[in-house]
Amino acid sequence: MGFAGACQPLRGTGDDAFLPHILFKEPVPEERETEKGLRPRDNVVACAGKGNPMTLPVKILSVLAGLSLAGSARARIWTNDRGATVVAVLVAVRDAEVDLKLQDGRVVAVPKNIFSGADQEYILEWVKSGGTLPDTDVGAENPPVQGDSGRRYVPLEPNWDAPWPERVVVPGFLLVKTVQETEELSVYETDHFIMESPGKLPEAERMILARRFETILSALAAVPLNLAVARRPSRKYLVRVCFQEEDFNRAPGLRNGHLKFSPTSFTALLLRDKKGKLLKPGLDPRFAVTHWAAQSMDWDHWLVDGFSAYMAFLPMEKEAPVFRKIPERLAAMVPRAVRTGREALPALADMLSRDSAHSAAEHGVSSRGGTLQYWADLLWMVYWSHLEGSGKAERLRSYLRVRDAEGGGKARAVLLDGKTPEDVQGEMVAAWKKMGLRLRFSQPASAAADRESAGK
Hints:
- It comes from Akkermansia muciniphila (strain ATCC BAA-835 / DSM 22959 / JCM 33894 / BCRC 81048 / CCUG 64013 / CIP 107961 / Muc).
- This is SLA1 homology domain-containing protein.
- The chain contains 15 helices and 16 strands.
- It is globular, with a radius of gyration of 25 Å.
- By secondary structure, it is α+β, with helices and mostly antiparallel strands.
- The longest helix has 20 residues, at 203-222.
- The protein folds into three domains: 15-152, SH3 type barrels (Roll), CATH 2.30.30; 157-297, no CATH class; 300-456.
């Protein structure tokens, strides 16, 4: 049995809730409903979360054709016995069926016996874990391997212990496939991206787009911070092209130069002159792709911003990011007011408690006119990556490893190494002093509030 005919939308949603460009339904004769084998009163074997699983019988969908960049940390691609796929989160397992939470938030019940061998094994492991099985693949296809027990679920091994790269190798051969090319809509496909354009893209332009997006994804995969969404992409990511400012401004997402990014897509603005020639500056997706990848891994906001600024700051040699002599390069570019301590950087305690309110435009451009927050993010990221300890990002890697396993509270203690934020600031100031910088930090917001209260 395929996904079509195995389930139906929850009562009250209506068939029109299935967007035609995302889900394709197959008509299912009413007389087949009794053959689904769904038993709404089956015993629950395992359930994720504290609530009860939804047990309404459902009838589905065949293939999820839409593209999505975001997802739960436990979302994965499920494959049935006919090869049809759907991206969903496992939320409950009963005797004969499982509940999957789709990307639009709805929960559907699907018979267990229609899934592939790899999915069957994953369900068994999920039940054994009590519904807490970590999925480091973040939606990856989890290819099965042959073993003593046949097929089994194989997670992606973390790369915490890999060496920090010196230079990312640009893909030597980059295939850009033309899926469709008309004056109204053109679609091009690379290994990991699908590019949609409202018209034809000259070969030079589509090769530039493809190479820049593929290169930053390769760079993120090479950094030993276990960015699983870059190391084993679960699907091809969507890049929409705009030729007009008006269309670009209407696109969703945060803006960074001539690029916007949201949880579901990237939007690139390609401006041309009257003769149709592409205008400079060129498109640089390093900040946007890094920001999306870090957010997809559910990193803290300060690290999302700092790591994105770091990847966008890296020098390029023959279109490849280079990780050599980063502290020296940054020390030479820091504005004089920051370098001499005339302007104080935000306190570390405030940075670590940052919420999601920020401007991508203020963080993604390494210019001497950048904001204090941008320079603070970049100085801290370079410190933890290249100056702290032996210069191999040990503390940063330990922080992320503990955060993945045990949560943010214990991870914060690892990052601070048992010290106060002020003590860690002192260590960072001492490290940068060797590079000719005399950094100074503001008082934390809490301390400033206490002084204000005392004054009153």
